[in-house]
Amino acid sequence: MTRTTVDRLLLGVTLSLALAAGAWWFYRSMEEALNQPIALAAPVLYELRPGQSITKIANELKAKGWLRDALFLRLEANRLGLASRVQAGTYELTSGITPRQLLDKFVRGEVKQYQVTIVEGTTFRDFRQALVTLPDIVHATSTLTDDELMAKIGAADEAPEGRFFPATYYYTHKTSDFDLLLRAYRQMEQVLAAEWATRSPDLPYAEVYQALIMASIIEKEAGAAAERPLVGGVFVRRLQQHMKLQTDPTVIYGLGKAFDGNLHRTDLERDTPYNTYTRDGLPPTPIALPGAAAIRAALHPAAGDALYFVAKGDGTHEFSATLKAHQAAVARFQLGPHGAR
């Protein structure tokens, strides 16, 4: 073997070792960069726009100081076949997340989620006020009247009270408040339809809307969840026997802003469409947003003979079948004339 041949072999070996060392160094640098936690003083939002390429994404992240080198993220995405699988949306980045985890987040579409909880028994007005205070939402309905809003939903002939299902709703950055309202409206339609289809026989409702009105009354009256069917049974029997419902929450709803926090005897005597002491049957609309359990109680009331109930003071009620027994219960629990039904 000539010296020239030996030199060439040594050169080849040296180059191979250099390339191997370079590749190892590059790989180590890439792994360190992709697994290096991003330092953030506070959570930040990053919007990944539709059609944005992995190159543009990597360059933007590098410009914000969140990547050591944009090339590493591009190579990782292409190596794993993820470059075309990133999903548009607004993402929340928190301190400690690594570029590799961030890429995985983009591919999974784990966008920032917000939530709003509409409590059972609150009113439609409460719902609308809650929407005004939500963060990162588009306020598309804040200038609409209730009638205009219902027309936009496609229910121009309906009163809004009771028509929106109380629940926890999740939404993403820049969701329209109208989308949340529409979801709540459709959810109520679905729950009502399902319960109406399996309702108990011989109920005093001509249509499902009357059951919704009853459900709203049950929601406001029944403090304990287990008592909803019992309260429903009392009110259903009262309707069947052509007795007045005589329920304070309807009176309070009818008073509106005139209600000062205390229900007076004069309030019970003041006639409004919602005063079930002065008027027979159900009020004209629901008085709150009832939940699924209250709707179920209105359509599947408990059997029995109770026609009266009075609050015990512990969140539950004493139920009575006769006026005499009811009066004794009122005297026993000493709640006064307005604590009884």
Instruction: Estimate the helix proportion, in percent.
Output: 40-55%
Strand order of the largest sheet: 1-2
Taking Cα atoms only, what radius of gyration do you get, to the nearest Å? 32 Å
Mean pLDDT: 89
The general outline is elongated
Q: Poorly predicted ranges (pLDDT <50, ≥5 residues)?
A: none
| Straight-line distance between termini | 113 Å
The beta-strand count equals 8
User: How many separate helices?
Assistant: 13
β-strand amount: 5-15%
Largest sheet: 2 strands, antiparallel
Q: What structural category arises from helix and sheet content?
A: mainly alpha
Description:
Helix 2 (54-63) runs antiparallel to helix 3 (70-79). A hairpin with a 5-residue loop joins strand 7 and strand 8. The chain folds into three domains: 34-111, Endolytic murein transglycosylase (Dna Ligase, domain 1); 113-193, no CATH class; 201-333, no CATH class. Strands 1-2 form a two-stranded antiparallel ribbon. The protein has a two-stranded antiparallel sheet with strand order 3-5. It is elongated, with a radius of gyration of 32 Å. The termini are far apart. The model has no long low-confidence stretch (mean pLDDT 89). It has 13 helices and eight strands. It is mainly alpha-helical and 341 residues long.
